[in-house]
Amino acid sequence: MAKPKVLLTRKWPADAEARAKELFDVTLNDDDHKMSVDELKDAMRNYDAVCPTVSDFVINEEIFNVDDRRCKIVANFGVGYNNIDTEAAKAAGVVVSNTPEVLTDCTADIAMSLLLAVSRRAGEGERLVRDKKWDGWCPTHMLATKVTGKKLGFIGFGRIAQAVAHKAHHGFDMEISFYDPYPPSAEVISKYNATQLDTVEDVLKDADFVTLHCPGGGANTNLMNAERLGMMKNHAFLINTARGDVVDEPALVEALKNGVIAGAGLDVFAKEPSVTDALLDMENVVLLPHLGSATTETRVAMGLRSLGNVQAFFDGKEPGDRVA
Ligand code: DGY
Predict the structure, then answer these.
(1) Which residues of the chain have a pLDDT value below 70?
(2) Is 170 a catalytic residue?
């Protein structure tokens, strides 16, 4: 029997591409260009499965509804799947899957890196040294904010958030609070001695650090608007490793400029790869280029997980990570 035809929309790590070649009649994106909408439409016509990523154009109704569609499964390379219109997929009868779990630890590590870097002024200090502007140690130089023992509030308390809570609570003795409309079990909550709060606002008012772990899009777009940023403590820091659209970037710039909050650590942006200019000039922000899952181990694992979903589908099984 002919192997399913599979398209990877971006370049994947070598080990994951090698596995794709073993399993399927696969087409790789060797020059790693961002595929146009027309290329994605062609992909729907010419492949049994498409494996897209967060940096592709959104696979929407227009793309799903091409004439003579061949594609039966869109197996995302990523846990967040706001690059796929799942309602349009359902209407078109196309299965959608994602890659949870395998990126949990590395994304949590980036959240902690941002938290530590922004509060301890690591980016600013690094720039000082590289610019040869460091005059030497003195008791008042670059005083920052202590992390250990502080209050860390979570908006969303799923897998990645819990991994951050584990590191923060057990490693840095931080007090954990969270809001999640779908909270985990009491047993999970007790692992971090976490306090469940009733609203996003309750978390914002209480925390020294706020870390975002909710999905992007829909009702969460601009969740962190001027009003909610205003509810944070003046000495508090905002960390975002979720999706850029969850934060109203112009409102964040104003909040940072006016001392409404102390700083921000951002791995994701509303219009990636573009970053609001004003942020680039600020010392009290740490900016990373969407590195959450960017380790070789994790990106290979994400590829294998995406392929596993395609394989299950064509073996007549339910893909383990089906989301639509
Ligand atoms: C994820 O998996 O959601 C990462 O942000 C990359 O898409």
Answers:
(1) none
(2) no
